[in-house]
Specification:
With about 220 residues, the chain is an all-alpha fold. It has twelve helices and no strands.
Length: about 220
C-alpha cells in the first residue's frame, strides 16, 4: 500500500527532496483512503506543519527526538531486545524476509529501522503486511505515546501506523508501557550513559517496553 511508503518518508530525516513533494504525499494518503477520520486529519495537519517549517529547524527537531538517546529510537529491536544476543538473530531473520521480497538494504542500514520496515510492509500483500505490522504495533504505539507527551507532531505518524495495523491497545496499557519504556535523557552525561556499550557477561538488559513474559512478537518476524 502506498500509504506505508508515505509514512516511511515522514519518519526519515527531513530532506528538501521529499518535503517539496508534500502535497503529492498528502494526496496519495487521501486517494488510497486507508487512513481515515481524525487520524487522517491529524496526519495531514502534521504534514502541513512539517512542510512549512524551516528545513534546518525540522532537521534539528528530528535529531533531538529520534537520535538523542534511545527513548524514541526508530530501531524497533532496541525497544524489544536492547543489547541482548537475541537482537542479532532477530536482525538476521528480518533481513532474510526482506531479501525474500526483493527489498535491498543499503550499506549501514539496519533492518529494524522503522522507515525501512514500513517499506517492507508496503511491498507485501495487504493481508500479510498488516499481519506483520501488527507484531510491531505495541512498540510503535509506545513510542507514539511518548511523542504525544512531548507534544510532537510525529505522534500523528505513529498513531496512523498503529491504526493501519488494526491493533487496539487501551489507554491504560499505553500509559503503563510508556512509563516503563526507555527513559528520556536530560543531559549529555545521560546520553553517554544510554549509548554506552554494556559490559561483557552482565546479562541482557530488561525489555523496557514490556513486562516479563509479555514481550511483543516482533522478534518472531
Amino acid at each position: 500500500m502506498r500509504s506505508f511508503r508515505v509514512l516511511s518518508h515522514l519518519l526519515t530525516y527531513p530532506q528538501s527532496e521529499w518535503i517539496s513533494h508534500m502535497d503529492e504525499l498528502k494526496q496519495a494518503l487521501v486517494d488510497e483512503g486507508v487512513v481515515k477520520g481524525k487520524t487522517l486529519k491529524s496526519l495531514l495537519a502534521f504534514m502541513d506543519e512539517l512542510a512549512a517549517t524551516d528545513l534546518m529547524e525540522a532537521q534539528e527537531a528530528y535529531v533531538e527526538l529520534f537520535d538523542r538517546g534511545r527513548a524514541n529510537c526508530l530501531h524497533l529491536f532496541e525497544h524489544v531486545h536492547g543489547e541482548s544476543r537475541f537482537r542479532g538473530q532477530a536482525m538476521v531473520e528480518l533481513a532474510d524476509k526482506y531479501q525474500e521480497k526483493g527489498l535491498r538494504i543499503g550499506t549501514g542500514e539496519l533492518p529494524d529501522y522503522l522507515p525501512l520496515f514500513l517499506e517492507f510492509v508496503s511491498i507485501c500483500e495487504p493481508e500479510e503486511g498488516i499481519e506483520i505490522l501488527a507484531q510491531a504495533a505495541p512498540v510503535v504505539a509506545t513510542i507514539g505515546e511518548k511523542l504525544k507527551r512531548s507534544k510532537s507532531g510525529y505522534a500523528a505518524v505513529m498513531t496512523a501506523i498503529v491504526a493501519l495495523s488494526g491493533v487496539r491497545l487501551s489507554k491504560a496499557e499505553l500509559e503503563k508501557a510508556a512509563d516503563a519504556a526507555l527513559p528520556d535523557i536530560q543531559s549529555l552525561d545521560e546520553l553517554d550513559e544510554q549509548w554506552k556499550e554494556p559490559e561483557a557477561f552482565t546479562g541482557a538488559p530488561d525489555c523496557g517496553t514490556c513486562a516479563p513474559n509479555e514481550t511483543p512478537t516482533l522478534g518472531a518476524l
